[in-house]
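Hi R.,

Quick one: here's the Protoporphyrinogen IX oxidase sequence you asked about.
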Amino acid sequence: MAYYWFKAFHLIGVVAWFAGLFYLVRLFVYHAEANQEPEPAQSILKNQYEIMEKRLYSIITTPGMIVTVVCAIGLISTEPEILKSGWLHIKMAIVLLLIGYHHYCKRIMKQLAKGECQWTGQQFRALNEAPTIMLVLIVLLAVFKNNLPLDITTWVVFGLVVAMVASIQLYAKKRRQDKEKLAQVELASSAE
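And here's the predicted structure, written out as tokens:
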């Protein structure tokens, strides 16, 4: 029965952790783009994003990571022979990368709070794709284990993920260009 409890809370932890990571970097996008706003809006927005980032990281994202890792250790303790599985070693390596990403986000939060971060909103949008890729790999490994299919279906799914990432980037670029055009129109109309 312990296995099922660990598994249930492991999945809950994964959902909370990834939700937090996805939203945290989205807040970084808004935080970076607040630099383009005039004062006092810029200071107000940056202060609000800083508060939101800290709360999200401390109340949802980090506890989600801790629950995920602790319950994974619990799962392994119920079936120690699973440590001999190659797929689990790959999954654990990806999770270690994800933990590094998690802590890197904390570093970015501190830089944003000090006004020392030079990243653009577009760069943060690209950074936000890293946990998506890791999530896909982790889920595929957990589901297929040592039988990960490398047939046409796998490549179609991979292609869909790449297309999704590309479409998000293109949409962000279009929004940025539209905003720049609107600013030029407003500037031209105020000059008249």
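The chain is about 85% helix and 0% strand.

Cheers,
M.
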